[in-house]
């Protein structure tokens, strides 16, 4: 997938302006709660009149005796030739023809006859849409009212622009935290639309599990058609087919695709309507709608819900594409996918494979490096995965060999042996080498800071910083040589108020920089400027020397700077994620890094700013 920068002319709504003064938190109590109005005097109850006698029937105008109080509904006058409604209110003139009835699915018939299940959530159990999300501020989430008074057009444009992955691991982690926070929708934006935009962004990042959890925090009765579609994508991304059934059976959707009809059939089967489900799926197959293998998957999945034991054989002959639907159904059913279809999996399916618990650890390990590099896997998750592979027993696979080397990296007889194991894990990583540094983060932190490893200190420090182990990394400050990679990473990652970098230290690093186009030096200068750890004279001097500019205004730079001015961390995190959209680290520029790091530092997210700056130098 090729995605470019999404910060150009159409990415942000210039007609919007950021709120420059955040108002006090809104009072959530209903009006009059603090000063309740006096209760009205109770109305005296009327004693029922005691009937003195049995009601007497009196003749009406038509000569028929009627009891007082009896109401007779007059017959409708159809002298105008209008349609005659049936007794239950159906307009008989609009009934479908027999041909149309034959083409209808069971769901469509239910809707026509008013038999579709209705929402039945007791009022006390209904959840408010005022704030939706997973992380409260006390749990690490952003303040709930962060976006409440911001222009809805700006928030809409920023979230809608997130159509792909984030190039930075730490940027991904920060954006996921912001999108998963329990937030109120901006003024003027429907809460369902706000949730839809967040779920779509999470799906585009590969965070299907988080997206699924977000939609599950919202009552299905409140789903819009767009939110239903985004929820279905999240459920398919996690191979949770049955989990999608409440949305499929109860929510409204504009979908009328074969995939939607197959989902409807599956959900009918798991609702106890197996015969109905199989009839719907056979009807879909006979009409030639949808690919044959997709319908076979749906029939097999639906058949597992009943007692018919109907055998369905999955035929892969002629299948050239492995779509998310096929991948999800195959994983959920334990159906092996031919090797020819798994050799060139796209990044999205690889990330799904890494996070699918239905797959064995050995089947997920090849995608784990990409997941770790992208921010989907933590260092702990990587170690857990390889621990399961090691515990499963020895074999000749590459995965087991790596698991054995990881164990040696922790329990080796001496630091030299442990570092040799770490280096072996780095050397065979290929394009996902940064993901292997995530794997070895805690093993690297266990090594003593020693002059014997000073030449490899930079890579060890980079590995530690993938897990945020900045204090462990700082133990190497007395070992690293001035102007080395290790020195540069510590200059950016040092917690607290770090001393300013001198001109001579920068000069040593730039002179020794062998990276293509001296990208490491460019990222270092941009990171130091954003963290305010170098003087303006030094920044200007080395910007000219490296033929780069941190100035220049765009719509995006003005917006993220304005969001930082009003100290809004949630909006800064979202705009930072927008600025880091892309399919490779080469998409990151020093100017964007400077504005992102600077804005994050100014809103109190300095830890994230330091990690992003250090990652930029390590990966450049």
Commentary on this structure:
By secondary structure, the chain is mainly alpha-helical. The protein has helices at residues 98-103, 106-113, 152-160, 169-180, 191-205, 208-216, 225-237, 245-250, 258-270, 274-286, 292-303, 324-333, 339-342, 347-355, 361-374, 379-391, 398-411, 415-427, 433-439, 441-445, 457-466, 470-473, 485-493, 503-512, 519-530, 536-545, 555-565, 569-579, 590-602, 606-619, and strands at 58-59, 65-66, 131-132, 183-184. It has a two-stranded antiparallel ribbon with strand order 1-2. A two-stranded antiparallel sheet has the order 3-4. It starts with 57 loop residues before the first strand and ends with a helix.
Briefly, what is this?
With 620 residues, this protein is an all-alpha fold. It is 50% helix and 1% strand. It has a two-stranded antiparallel sheet with strand order 1-2. The chain has a two-stranded antiparallel ribbon with strand order 3-4.
- What's the β-strand tally? 4
**Helical proportion?**
40-55%
* General shape: globular
Helix segment tally: 30
> Could you report the average pLDDT, rounded to the nearest whole number?
84
Order of adjacent strands in the largest pleated sheet: 1-2
**Biggest pleated-sheet summary:** 2 strands, antiparallel
Q: Per DSSP, what share of the residues sits in E-state strands of 2 or more residues? A: under 5%
Structural class estimated from helices and strands: mainly alpha
Q: Catalogue the unreliable spans.
A: 1-15, 21-55, 66-76, 78-87
Rg for CA atoms = 32 Å
Q: How far is the N terminus from the C terminus?
A: 21 Å
């Amino acid at each position: 997938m090729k995605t470019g920068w999404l910060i150009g002319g159409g990415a942000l709504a210039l007609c919007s302006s950021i709120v420059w003064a955040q108002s006090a938190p809104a009072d959530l109590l209903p009006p009059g709660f603090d000063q309740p109005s006096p209760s009205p005097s109770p109305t005296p109850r009327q004693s029922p009149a005691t009937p003195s006698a049995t009601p007497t029937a009196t003749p009406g105008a038509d000569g028929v005796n009627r009891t007082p109080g009896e109401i007779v509904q007059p017959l409708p006058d159809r002298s105008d030739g209008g349609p005659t409604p049936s007794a239950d209110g159906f307009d008989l003139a609009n009934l479908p023809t027999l041909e149309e009835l034959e083409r209808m699915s069971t769901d469509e018939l239910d809707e026509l006859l008013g038999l579709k299940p209705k929402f039945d959530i007791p009022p006390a159990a209904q959840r408010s849409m005022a704030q939706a999300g997973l992380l409260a501020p006390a749990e690490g989430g952003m303040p709930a009212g962060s976006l409440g008074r911001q222009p809805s057009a700006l928030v809409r444009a920023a979230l809608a622009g997130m159509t792909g992955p984030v190039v930075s691991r730490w940027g991904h982690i920060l954006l996921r935290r912001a999108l998963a926070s329990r937030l109120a929708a901006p003024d003027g934006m429907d809460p369902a639309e706000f949730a839809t935009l967040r779920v779509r962004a999470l799906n585009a990042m590969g965070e299907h599990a988080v997206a699924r959890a977000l939609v599950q925090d919202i009552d299905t009765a409140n789903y819009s058609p767009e939110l239903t579609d985004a929820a279905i994508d999240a459920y398919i991304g996690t191979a949770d087919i049955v989990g999608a059934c409440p949305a499929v059976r109860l929510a409204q959707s504009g979908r009328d695709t074969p995939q939607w009809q197959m989902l409807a059939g599956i959900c009918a089967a798991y609702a106890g309507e197996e015969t109905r489900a199989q009839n719907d799926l056979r009807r879909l197959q006979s009409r030639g709608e949808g690919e044959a293998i997709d319908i076979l998957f749906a029939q097999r999945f639906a058949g597992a819900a009943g007692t018919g034991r109907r055998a369905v054989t999955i035929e892969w002959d002629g299948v050239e594409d492995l779509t998310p639907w096929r991948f999800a159904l195959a994983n959920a059913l334990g159906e092996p996918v031919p090797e020819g279809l798994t050799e060139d999996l796209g990044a999205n399916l690889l990330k799904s494979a890494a996070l699918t618990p239905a797959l064995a650890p050995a089947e997920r390990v090849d995608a784990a490096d990409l997941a770790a590099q992208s921010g989907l896997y933590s260092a702990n998750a990587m170690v857990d995965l390889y621990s399961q592979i090691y515990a499963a027993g020895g074999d000749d696979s590459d995965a087991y060999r790596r698991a054995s080397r990881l164990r040696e990296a922790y329990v080796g007889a001496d630091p030299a042996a442990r570092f040799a194991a770490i280096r072996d894990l780095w050397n065979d990583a290929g394009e996902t080498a940064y993901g292997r540094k995530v794997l070895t983060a805690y093993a690297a932190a266990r090594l003593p800071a020693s002059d014997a490893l000073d030449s490899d200190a930079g890579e060890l420090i980079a590995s530690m910083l993938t897990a945020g182990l900045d204090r462990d990394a700082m133990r190497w400050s007395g070992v690293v040589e001035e102007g080395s990679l290790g020195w540069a990473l510590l200059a950016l990652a040092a917690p607290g108020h770090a001393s300013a970098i001198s001109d001579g230290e920068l000069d040593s690093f730039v002179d020794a920089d062998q990276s293509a186009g001296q990208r490491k030096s460019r990222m270092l200068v941009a990171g130091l400027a954003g963290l305010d750890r170098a003087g303006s004279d030094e920044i200007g001097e080395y910007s000219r020397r490296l033929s780069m500019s941190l100035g220049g205004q765009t719509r995006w730079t003005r917006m993220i700077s304005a969001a930082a001015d009003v100290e809004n961390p949630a909006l800064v995190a979202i705009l930072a994620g927008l600025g880091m959209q892309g399919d490779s680290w080469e998409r990151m520029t020093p100017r964007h890094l400077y504005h992102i790091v600077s804005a994050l530092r100014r809103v109190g997210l300095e830890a994230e700013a330091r990690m992003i700056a250090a990652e930029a130098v390590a990966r450049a």
